[in-house]
Amino acid sequence: MTYLIRAVRAEDWRELKDLRLAALADPAAPVAFTEPYAKAVAQSDEFWRRRAAQGDRGRVAQTFVGEPAGADSAAGVARWAGMVTVLVEKDSVDVVGVYVRPEHRGTGLAGQLFAAAEEWARPLRRIGVRRMRLHVHEDNPRAEALYRRLGYVRTGEADADPKNPALNQYEMELRFDP
């Protein structure tokens, strides 16, 4: 399957809402996201409009999506297949949301989404950004394996899971070349 990878635009708010709610309803959501589905589904349309427009306001945050392209799109598979959301935090660009619909997992889409996010982040080196950073739950080995394949390594730092302090979320990073 081929995908068109692009940044979310303000007018995409309905599609963004649909994909985010699908992510939060996924069986892996408890170890992948801190936001509960009930909170997200209760948000107003204005909330989703602002969230979709965040990338239009400058280089602070951006969501990249993958859409089936070419024949796959023409075959009626036009729903967004996955997303990666990133935001600038001091010396890093933090990956704060990753989701690929189950039927698109294993297709290489996640790697394409990360490549777009990394390309977006690299020019930020001029303001001191030196790495991409994310946190992966200890009970999410499939996600950690993906991040390792993409070049991310554990930093040795860990935070307690806000939903269950007995569990950890490991920090991983991809350092940019100087």
How do the strands and helices of this protein lay out in sequence?
Layout: E1 3-7, H1 13-25, H2 29-32, H3 37-41, H4 45-53, E2 61-68, H5 71-74, E3 82-89, E4 92-100, H6 109-121, E5 131-137, H7 141-149, E6 153-161, E7 164-175
Parallel strand pairs: 4-5
Antiparallel strand pairs: 1-2, 2-3, 3-4, 5-7, 6-7
Helix pairs in contact: 1-4
What does this structure look like?
The chain is an alpha+beta fold and 178 residues long. It has 7 helices and 7 strands; from the N terminus they run E-H-H-H-H-E-H-E-E-H-E-H-E-E. The protein has helices spanning 13-25, 29-32, 37-41, 45-53, 71-74, 109-121, 141-149, and strands at residues 3-7, 61-68, 82-89, 92-100, 131-137, 153-161, 164-175. The protein has a 7-stranded mixed beta sheet. Helix 6 links the parallel strand 4 and strand 5. The longest helix is centred in the first third of the chain and has 13 residues, at 13-25.
Mean pLDDT level? 92
Count of strand segments: 7
Largest sheet: 7 strands, mixed
Distance between the termini: 35 Å
**Low-pLDDT residue spans:** none
Radius of gyration equals 16 Å
